[in-house]
Amino acid sequence: MDIATIIGFFGGLAAVVLGVISSGSSIMNIIDIPSVFVTVGGSFFSLWIVAPMDQVLKVGTVLGRTLKVFDYGEKAIVQNMVSLSEKARREGILALEEGLEDLDDPFLKEGLRLMVDGSDGNVIRAILESEMAKTEQRHMTYINIVNQWAGYGPGFGMMGTVIGLIGMLRNLEDKSSLGPNMATALITTLYGSWVANWLFGPMAQKLIGQNSAEMNAKEMVIEGILSIQQGDNPRVLAQKLLTYLDPKSRKAIEGEVLKD
After folding, report:
1. Distances (CA, A) of 32 to 38, 66, 149, 184
2. Measured between alpha carbons, how far is 195 from 60 in angstroms, rounded to an integer?
3. ∠49-53-56 over CA atoms, to 5°?
4. What predicted TM-score, i.e. pTM, was given to this entire model?
């Protein structure tokens, strides 16, 4: 469970609630079910025009990823690549075929298989980078859908406000209802802002961060495989891969992989 997402979700809600209470208003004044239908429902069904049905139906699953913490094993990649490099220098590249099928990472397995089969380095890079690009393309397809949802929210919020104002103007004879009706009309604008700035906009950014972390790990795999193929010293390989890590992670394993 990603605690940061939970804190952000409830913290944002609490900030609005505290703002309402401290202004002397009531929470009930910002709760309006029809406004939810207009903003959240209207913006959601716009996605059915934007994207194919099967993609829209998976949006909930994609959003669920923001509640999870993913470990792409960057530190393990460095350690494994150094170990593979040492084995290749002792026994030759063909020795890496042993245990290849036991690897859990399909991307790493594919790259090592290409190397063991004697593929040229440029070919290995081209195939693996193409695989990376297609994976990122799939990720960005869903991230763009979430971004679209965030973008449509304020528009539907404004539509709801206009609808409310039309109803209010049609009933101008009742002066006492003007204030409450205006407040109700403006709630949809608030909900539209929530959709964009509290929910789906931040969720899309978190998904982008997850995608970047995964692509970083895949780049490490490519760099490691090509370094092994070129016969680089394991220490040199380690130094190359350590540049992909943040300072804290790098410090945690630097002594182990850079040992003499």
Report:
1. 10, 27, 20, 8
2. 15
3. 85
4. 0.88
Contact between residue 238 and residue 257 where contact means Cβ atoms under 8 Å apart: yes
Q: Tell me, rounded to whole angstroms, the distance of Cα 245 from its chain centroid.
A: 19
pLDDT tens-digit map of 43-93: 999 999 999 999 999 999 999 999 999 989 889 899 989 988 989 888 888
CA–CA distance, 112 with 193 (Å, rounded to integer): 48
What is the DSSP secondary-structure string of the chain?
A: --HHHHHHHHHHHHHHHHHHHHTT--GGGG--HHHHIIIIIHHHHHHHHHS-HHHHHTHHHHHHGGGS-----HHHHHHHHHHHHHHHHHH-GGGGGTTGGG-S-HHHHHHHHHHHTT--HHHHHHHHHHHHHHHHHHHHHHHHHHHHHHHHHHHHHHHHHHHHHHHHHTTTT-GGGHHHHHHHHHHHHHHHHHIIIIIIHHHHHHHHHHHHHHHHHHHHHHHHHHHHHTT--HHHHHHHHHTTS-HHHHHHHHHHHT--
Cα separation, 28 vs 33, in Å, equals 11
Amino acid at 160: G
The HSE-up count of residue 229 (CA atoms within 13 Å, CB side) is 21
User: The dihedral of CA 31, 37, 40, 43: what is its sign?
Assistant: negative
